[in-house]
Design a protein that fits this description.
The chain is mostly beta strands. The protein is 5% helix and 41% strand. The protein contains two helices and 14 strands; from the N terminus they run E-E-E-E-E-H-E-E-E-E-E-E-E-E-E-H. The strands form three sheets. The chain has a seven-stranded antiparallel sheet with strand order 1-2-3-11-8-13-6, with no helix packed on it. A hairpin with a 6-residue loop joins strand 2 and strand 3. The longest helix has 5 residues.
Length: 187
Amino acid sequence: MNVEGVKVEETTLPGVLVFEPRVFGDSRGYFLETFQEERYAEHGVGRMVQLNHSHSARGTLRGLHYQEPRPQGKLVWAASGAIFDVALDVRRGSPTFGEWMSVELSAENHRQIWVPAGFAHGFCVLSPEADVCYGCTDYYARECEQAILWNDPALAIDWPLEGTILSEKDAGAPLLANARVLPIFDG
């Protein structure tokens, strides 16, 4: 589907979408809209209230993160470099609970992923460095911060990494089966 210059691709997880914004290039470089509220809202992307930017080296893995209560939807893209990006359905009672999908996001392909509230999100850096930007539909709340172990054997996520660089928090996250706080699927 192409909506006014933005190609929208559905994924195996209902509600998780991949966007390919139209890129306008010339001898100076290029221009693209990373977000346009009316266009993206047609596909369920909520109003952004916070923009985040992370810079990481090759092999860094961040995730799998979500907030509950006060869940956040996230629109994610790589401003430089390349990442392997993952969305994981953690909504208890969902027909796709525990299922994940992945997409490569890079500064070259300009793709974005929409990770709705109720999904955990994570990524690993494939290039020497990467700058990852994401808009969030709610504010960060430390007391709502949740995580699932990135290499939970029950999930079998096929991360393309060796020598993974993790934070202590991510290395110590619980398995999905042991998560204390999970969102509830509402329909």
